[in-house]
Amino acid sequence: MAPLDRLLPIGTIVLTQHRLTADVQHELAEDGWLNLAKDSLEPVPDPAADPPVEPAPAPPPPAAPRRSSTTKAGSSSRSKKRRASSAAGGSSLSKKVKYSAHPHLDALLTLSAAHVLRATVRIVDVDVGEGEGSAAAALVRVYLVPQDLPELRGPGAVRARMRPPGSVVLGLLSAVRVHAGEWDGEVQSGDLPGFMAETVRPALSWPVALHGGQRLTPYSHPAG
């Protein structure tokens, strides 16, 4: 895992209705937040939702009529062939590992596993609306991993890394918000500048936010 001071801080993502998973040992990151891992967060249950109802046990299936030994042998042979064919076909399909039902959280974990980014998280309070109080949310800092880091260029590292689909990368980067106050831990209301819309990114080499002609990273603040 590359240290944060060698990565590119690009902005934040807010995951509403999420909290830290209980009974999990969370690892502290270099920025004072927690490293985002696949078991770090869980959805907050909806208090208004009805409790799950256990389905009634299904009645036992009716007994199948007895067949002659010749028919049974032929049927068994055809069943074995069908199972073998299905197994052979299924083994050639690669299945994407899904970490979470939330698309942004799933993308964050997928791209972290692929060493495209690192993410750290903090639980904060977010205003729900006038007269409705606040609710917990997960605020995530997103750091891009420069792809020329030495630890990513060795033959062993290259073989071990997955290549995520471009749609996953672009979809996640399009959800990143750029605001110094939110980077510091205060979720902002309303629409914020997006990373993909408000940055100068020559091949994503050094993403910076534009503010009145100044180039800012999420760490910095506009002058004056």
Ranges where pLDDT stays below 50 over 5 or more residues in a row are 85-95, 198-224
Q: Give, in spatial order, the strands making up the sheet with the most strands.
A: 1-6-5-3
Number of DSSP strand runs: 9
Radius of gyration: 25 Å
| CA(first)-CA(last) distance | 37 Å
Number of helices: 5
Structural class: alpha+beta
- Overall geometry comes to extended
Mean pLDDT level: 75
Biggest sheet details? 4 strands, antiparallel
Tell me the helix content. 10-25%
**Beta content:** 15-25%
Summarize the helix and strand pattern as letters. EEEEHHEEHHHEEE
Protein model, in words:
With 224 residues, this protein is an alpha+beta fold. It has a domain at 4-43 and 96-197. It has helices spanning 69-91, 103-113, 155-160, 166-174, 180-183, and strands spanning 8-16, 18-20, 34-35, 41-43, 117-129, 133-144, 199-200, 208-211, 214-216. The protein has a four-stranded antiparallel β-sheet with strand order 1-6-5-3. It has a three-stranded antiparallel β-sheet with strand order 7-8-9, with no helix packed on it. The protein has a two-stranded antiparallel ribbon with strand order 2-4. Strand 8 (208-211) and strand 9 form a beta hairpin. The radius of gyration is 25 Å and the shape is extended.
